[in-house]
Amino acid sequence: MKKLINKPDDVIREQLEGMQAAHADLLKVNYEPFYITRAGGPVKGKVALVSGGGSGHEPMHGGFVGHGMLHAACPGEVFTSPTPDQMHEAAKAADGGAGVLNIVKNYTGDVMNFEMAAELAMADGIKVQNIVIDDDIAVKDSLYTAGRRGVGSTVLIEKICGAASEKGYDLEKLSALCRTLNQNGRSMGMALTSCITPGNGEPSFEIGDDEMEIGIGIHGEPGIKRDKIKSVDEITEMMTVSIIEDKPYTRKLKEWDFGKNEWVERELTDEPLKKGDKVIAFVNSMGGTPVSELYGVYRKMAQITDKFGLKIVRNLIGPYITSLEMQGCSITLMKVDDEMIKLWDAPVYTPGLKWGK
Amino acid sequence: MKKLINKPDDVIREQLEGMQAAHADLLKVNYEPFYITRAGGPVKGKVALVSGGGSGHEPMHGGFVGHGMLHAACPGEVFTSPTPDQMHEAAKAADGGAGVLNIVKNYTGDVMNFEMAAELAMADGIKVQNIVIDDDIAVKDSLYTAGRRGVGSTVLIEKICGAASEKGYDLEKLSALCRTLNQNGRSMGMALTSCITPGNGEPSFEIGDDEMEIGIGIHGEPGIKRDKIKSVDEITEMMTVSIIEDKPYTRKLKEWDFGKNEWVERELTDEPLKKGDKVIAFVNSMGGTPVSELYGVYRKMAQITDKFGLKIVRNLIGPYITSLEMQGCSITLMKVDDEMIKLWDAPVYTPGLKWGK
What we know:
about 30% helix; globular; 8 helices; Hypothetical Protein Tm841, Chain: A,domain 3; homodimer; 6-stranded mixed beta sheet; about 25% strand; Rossmann fold
């Protein structure tokens, strides 16, 4: 196993210690249980944005804690949901009196645990809402998911909602923004190689020297098809066109109903992208693919969005939601309006994403 | 060959097209010959900072073109020096009337070609100085180099000198700063895997499944020793202690003498790091190592610098000077004074490095 680690059991704690040593100005790591909050403590009067999920997708989510983005993050073991306990403690530590919005990627364990954590926090008198992200158009119902998986949109949503929280959006308005952004975003990924979790020591899946996996998830879950490696132009065209031509998708996602005081299923249908839409384009590395290759992807993607009459107004290119050292990439296109663009442009200051001040 | 590319011959051009499409607000790509300048044209009255080298080390150098860092960059073919022609054209395009400082990594081809380019630009009436970076303590005289190789310090120097140029340093003062920073910086790298250049299609070197290479260069040049993979703590300790305990190093580097109007060798001896020194600590991914593992390196490195009484005042963690998809890392420690820290903190706005505005 070719990794820069000590004992597999110590990987998460030691990497968190490294983050703490490197970014004491931005964040504070709690070790029992694991969660990360902003260095300055809760932000009074602002809705606290909390996210979390299995480790191995760095810099998500701990690397996105800081001004203009998350207030807290809960790292699970590698590719494993964090526990309700972690999420509950993070909510308590991050709440500044205006409530907590949990941004939850759609994996069965994450969804279930964030629901339990929300209930625990509500029992403490904290107002909490959960919004589930499910933007991966590749597959419905997979190894870890009922419905579509939550992937690249999560990064863009954490940035935009983080700025909205700084701007003073209340919990209802922020939840509505988060929900809309999820409906506005679509993603698809692919892999050239597998990855190795430290605990297991073996590749998550086998793939031939001349093969690639299209539609892969961020845990190496199977995608749509296994194929011979194609050119970056062919791969990019296939993914981009699939995203743009994706049909309206209807999902039922659970949210807390503050009137009924219970979880309710909200049926949401998104509209496909159409000519004239403004989008944020996000080309992501799965971890092992260098940024140079992402520019090859971006080149073709921009030609295709142009052909379909989409206008890329902002972009993000780099390793922001990874699968350890997996080689591959994902593309996310998210429709945005002028307010969302303004929120995107707002200052952000975290270990993983930084601009303005 | 598992890469997101089309034809190997088109890789550089297409990736540059992708950069241009993504960052038209920041930079402008020239295609015949290849060079990248700032989108806004030359900056009047400020010394133009120009760098370049073989491609494959992204985001260096093209990704560092923009406000607060480089004015122009020349990408060669993968792991191959750019030509004097590229460097000459870049100097002409970037010069804002206050001269050009070429930041040159110490590889035989780069040094020779930047000297020729400087002479060509001087023949055009542009004032040019070349400062050579040679911070890699691992080996002296290697596959591509006479003397020590130029590696991680280059990134830190381009940031700090970029800020100094914005601040109005003239060519002499900026050259002196660049020279001092080079003497102040020391680096060492290691690799877990090889990398594959698109043109060749085969790994640059062979390495066993249980082996690592210590002291490797950014082109996969051999290092100090081949060893069984050790723990991240052992690897980090070995590299960090080597950097800190490095003996005074004397090199002769050619610079232009504006009085004599010729190249002269300047003998420079640096002082080892000592207790109480303030340093910028840079933990770099060779491309294929994910940021999570870099935090494991940072953790141990910070413990060791602490033990030696060094004070890490700033840090940089991520893939900033890479070797395609190679797995591995490098550590750079650079002694800085308060003025250098201020320049480090100054706004930078490039595709690869961004903060403030």
